[in-house]
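Exercise 7. Given the encoded structure of a 620-residue chain, write a plausible sequence.
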């Protein structure tokens, strides 16, 4: 092993690696050098010079190109490599292990044999980058050290923006390190993009804490520490009694300078980023949180230090902080946008989009079609930007706190046109986990996902990333709330409720009011109305908050229309959710059915007394 490393790394890189006293790590790296056969190997020690070398290589190799504003670059993925490959993302399962029918898997022996044939010599002609990171703040019990092997300088560059440096952490931990490992190769390239996407594979081994990703460049498939690491962490947390959640973490300002921290889970296109980025509040993270119980309270950290955000629809009115950041000098990677004269353009921005330029399809012009006859949009709908959170003016100074922040509330939000009210608090932890988190649905939109209005079940917004059976995941969430001196309050929000005319009943900015009400509820400073489905705000409290927060009048008619209980719609939702858990989840905890049935009976009783649609006044 030592001979292989000395020969292939060269003296400088060899010494950098040997400074980490962990022979297991040395064997891991030596093995994949032998298997993947890179021409060169670079070990990053997180010095400014080493990080700059990775940035420079991304440009020299053509995986990124500089743009007009200093620090901005653009990366293009292959035309058919623009999103997470769910079909070829599989768990490697040992014999006798079953995660249930909802989780894509392959027998471990079969998967490793397939990978062996794909990996052999896949990095010939390339340089392997050996990078060290931590998921979460350094020197924290929350955090997990990680090693990324990749032959893509774009992937390595992205991770230096998104994740905290880990080389010194590995040196500190030495042989005590419990770490995740990621092996990625973009494979053979044509025009600087992965050529053999028919052999695109993303295989996850939770038994050995390793992820393999080959013949792809798209970040969701290749940036190992993102959703791929999330699967490993869900599995580890399930064994150790802590949670890995697909959640934002944000601080909401209350009276007298108080800041209360919330986490929030929202499926795609349901308001997650816009909530995390609310002007006047503080962001710690927009995507993934680790949660632990400490001294009777829940604490959380953002495992990332950057944002890999969808850029479609970002504009100066709805997203002023991100918009400002994207238009000044900073280290930012734009991916799969349109470029004209060194400037990026994307769907839904303020500026008029040119009729020609360069995008993920190559030279682009308005009306250009792909080989299937589909018109090619100027930027891809999944186009992204990668930026450090500290570039945002609302970044919370406690983002790197190794103790995490105390979580006062947990929010679950979906796209729902006719059932949930804009904001509602659950009765207790169990009621919240089951009726808000485990019952989360989101309606598809015509603009992005084909047929509109189809309800997609997505418990806790985490369905795609589970590495344990669904029922066990729900039970772990239920158990997590036990023995807490002060459990976070659980809320459901819905920014997409519509009236009979099909128009939204709330403005985009109204979410600021819902957050302020939730913050006051966490501290017991406003009362609420108890309904069959949870606690809702009183009109007089919302009227005051709308005036204070938005300088806006709020009418009783609007309140009654937004917060009336839609009994039949709730009953239909209970039927849908119960059917899913009865027929598609083999290990559903029995308490889930009991909580849903109890809610059903409360709704039926309310309907018998007040009718199908019940205004809040009736419950006072």
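Solution.
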């Amino acid at each position: 092993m030592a001979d292989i490393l000395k020969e292939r790394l060269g003296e400088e890189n060899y010494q950098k690696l040997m400074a980490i006293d962990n022979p297991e790590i040395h064997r891991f790296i030596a093995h994949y050098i032998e298997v993947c056969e890179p021409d060169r190997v670079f070990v990053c020690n997180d010095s400014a010079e080493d990080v700059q070398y990775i940035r420079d290589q991304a440009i020299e190799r053509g995986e990124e190109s500089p743009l007009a504003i200093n620090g901005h670059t653009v990366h293009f993925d292959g035309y058919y490599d623009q999103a997470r490959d769910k079909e070829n993302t599989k768990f490697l399962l040992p014999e006798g292990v079953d995660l249930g029918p909802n989780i894509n898997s392959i027998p471990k022996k079969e998967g490793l044999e397939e990978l062996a044939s794909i990996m052999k010599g896949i990095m010939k002609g390339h340089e392997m980058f050996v990078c060290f990171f931590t998921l979460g703040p350094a020197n924290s019990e929350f955090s997990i050290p990680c090693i990324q092997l990749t032959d893509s300088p774009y992937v390595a560059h992205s991770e230096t923006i998104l994740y905290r440096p880990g080389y010194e952490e590995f040196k500190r931990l030495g042989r005590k390190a419990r770490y995740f490992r990621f092996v990625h190769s973009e494979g053979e390239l044509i025009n600087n993009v992965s050529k053999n996407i028919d052999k695109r594979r993303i295989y996850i081994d939770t038994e050995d804490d390793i992820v393999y990703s080959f013949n792809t460049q798209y970040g969701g498939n290749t940036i190992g520490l993102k959703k791929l690491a999330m699967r490993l962490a869900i599995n580890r947390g399930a064994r150790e009694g802590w949670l890995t959640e697909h959640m934002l973490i944000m601080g909401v300002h209350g009276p007298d300078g108080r800041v209360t921290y919330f986490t929030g889970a929202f499926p795609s296109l349901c308001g997650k980023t816009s909530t995390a980025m609310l002007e006047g509040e503080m962001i710690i993270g927009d995507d993934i949180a680790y949660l632990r119980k400490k001294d009777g309270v829940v604490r959380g950290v953002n495992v990332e230090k950057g944002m890999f955000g969808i850029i479609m629809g970002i504009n100066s009115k709805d997203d002023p902080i991100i918009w400002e950041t994207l238009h000044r000098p900073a280290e930012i990677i734009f991916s799969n946008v349109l470029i004209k004269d060194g400037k990026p353009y994307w769907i839904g921005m303020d500026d008029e989009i040119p009729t020609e330029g360069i995008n993920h399809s190559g030279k682009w012009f308005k009306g250009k079609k792909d080989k299937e006859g589909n018109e090619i949009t100027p930027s891809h709908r999944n186009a992204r930007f990668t930026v450090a959170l500290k570039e945002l003016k609302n970044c919370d100074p406690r983002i790197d706190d190794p103790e995490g922040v105390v979580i006062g509330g947990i929010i679950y939000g979906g796209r729902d046109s006719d059932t949930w009210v804009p904001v509602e608090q659950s009765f207790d932890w169990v009621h919240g986990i089951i009726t808000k988190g485990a019952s989360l649905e989101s309606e598809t939109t015509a603009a992005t996902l084909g047929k509109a209005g189809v309800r997609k079940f997505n418990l806790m917004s985490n369905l795609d990333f589970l590495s344990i059976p669904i029922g066990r995941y729900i039970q772990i969430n239920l158990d997590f709330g036990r023995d807490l001196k002060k459990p976070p309050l659980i809320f459901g929000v819905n920014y997409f409720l519509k009236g009979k005319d099909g128009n939204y009943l709330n403005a985009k900015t109204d979410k600021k009011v819902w957050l302020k009400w939730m913050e006051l509820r966490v501290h017991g400073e406003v009362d609420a109305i108890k309904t069959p489905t949870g606690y809702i705000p009183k009109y007089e409290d919302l009227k005051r908050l709308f005036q204070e927060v938005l300088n806006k009048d709020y009418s009783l008619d609007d309140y009654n229309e937004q917060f009336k209980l839609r009994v039949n719609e709730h009953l239909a939702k209970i039927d849908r959710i119960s059917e899913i858990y009865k027929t598609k989840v083999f290990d559903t905890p029995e308490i889930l059915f009991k909580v849903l049935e109890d809610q059903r009976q409360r709704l039926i009783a309310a309907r018998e007394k007040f009718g199908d649609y019940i205004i809040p006044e009736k419950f006072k």
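Remark. The chain has three domains: 2-64+85-240, 244-304+399-619, 308-391. Students should compare their own answers with the one above.
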